[in-house]
Amino acid sequence: MSQNQYLRAIGDLKGENFVIPSYQRGYRWTSKEVKALLQDIWDFTQIENQPDFYCLQPIVVKKNGEEYNVIDGQQRLTTIFLLIKFLQNKDHFTITYQSRRKSTEFLKNIQHSVDREKNIDFYHFDKAYGYIKDFFENDDIDKKKFENTLIDKCKVLWYEIAKKENENEVFIRLNIGKIPLVEAENIKALFLSKNDELDSEDLKERAELWYKSEIEARENRDFRYCVLNKVDEKNIEQKSIKDDILRIDAYLKAIVPYSKEEYYLFDYFYKSYRDGTLNDRWEELEKSINTLSGFAGGKANSKIDREIFHYLGFLILSGKNIDSLYREWKNNTNKELFAKKLLEIIQEKISKIKNIEELHYKNDKEKIKDILLLFNLEYLICDEGSNEYFKFNRFVLEQWSLEHIYAQNSKGIKESIESKNNDDIIKWLEQVLLHIDENDTLLKQEIEQSKEKGKFEEELFDKINESFKNNEALHKIQNLTLLDKESNSKIGNQIFSRKRKEIQKLGEQDKLIPIATKKVFEKVFSTDKSNPDVFGKKDQKDYLAEIQKRLERYIKGEGDE
């Protein structure tokens, strides 16, 4: 959403003409929202060393001749209209409703209206006006002081969208959360507000650092950002992160204690703004940017830098909050000790996963994914000669998931069955025999007889599928690896020999293939490499042994501290 964005004082809105488009719902603020707004403004008036303004939530508009169509913020704007109407007994600006013409007249004469019960909008206008009247009946509230603060010191974050943009589409996108008016923009407004300690040059430097940090976090398809921030899948579109996501929030989150509250970041910085410590927060933000952008840059060659990079990325991707990790760095700014601490945090996490060989695809997907990701990272960390850094950005954006190494049903040879390609079917059945439960002698006999006769009934494939379905070994970690969502859906059901060739092709096409996925299909971990087209029980056993060996240092024994 391209827009002209700045802070605008309530006093500056005098004489403006606002139109509430027909696609907007009616006014519905309750006592909770109205009283919260009133109390916040009054609390602001009580601050001893008062900042130069109080920042209200955003208003999104589109210029239409001499009017502004209100796309978002009509509830707040209407409440401000009612508030000034009560305080000054006049209209500070006009509000017109495209589909509810009588509402405009009702608002103009709200002190004298008597037919408020006849219309649901009138009812809510009247209720809000009543909450405002009740608030000022408190003798402790200085009405004039409140009015002066509202008009002169309260500002809205004003978003004016471009003329070429379709306001209906913007409204829809805002309301389904695709273009959130994110906290970072509001926080930026706080940091760029003037105070006695800053001049215009200081503000310019702040704006430049903010912009530069945003650009760098987006570089190389969000390389740094995906190391420092866990990305919600709903914010991924066509293998890229939505443009309205402000990447600087990773650095903001690093210096603010995590909370589940929706606007905890803005609340934290706004509190600093009110108590006069915002400049201290800016210094912290600068340090956060300088430190974390270096750790997440993936450009250093030293072993310790590569360890920190991979540990950070793993912990963030597996759900750790960046503020707790950055706090560990601030406790002792020594790279070796920081890397050791990150390792300990990973050890604590991984040691809770008992008996990895028993983890099941159906119930333990996230645990298996963590184990296999760490397996890949450890492989890279130990390969000091390559200086390669794991591409967390592509891993996130291409939405990697678990894939069965050996396909657990007959879909992979569906074409061969339909075209009666017996050679392919026989090769597949020979692999099937390696995986069928040892006690299922009847099915084994049926397969052998079908091979001899060269006749393959549909009933046989149904029995094999049912046998695979009940074969728990095929759903354990020793038969699982990581593959991106697109490739998984394309080659997921193919037999091992075909998967191996497809993955080789994908690698040649510059598709991201994690090192361990590549190696398992090359049978690097298998002690018997005589048949590259088969991945049997012995191969699974060797693969599991390699995983356990590589992850030994991440699993604490009972005697470890």
Automatic annotation (TrEMBL):
Residue ranges occupied by any GmrSD restriction endonucleases N-terminal domain in the UniProt entry: 16-192
Superkingdom per UniProt: Bacteria
Pfam families to which the protein is assigned, alphabetical: GmrSD_N
Name by which UniProt lists this protein: GmrSD restriction endonucleases N-terminal domain-containing protein
Species in which this protein is naturally found: Campylobacter vulpis
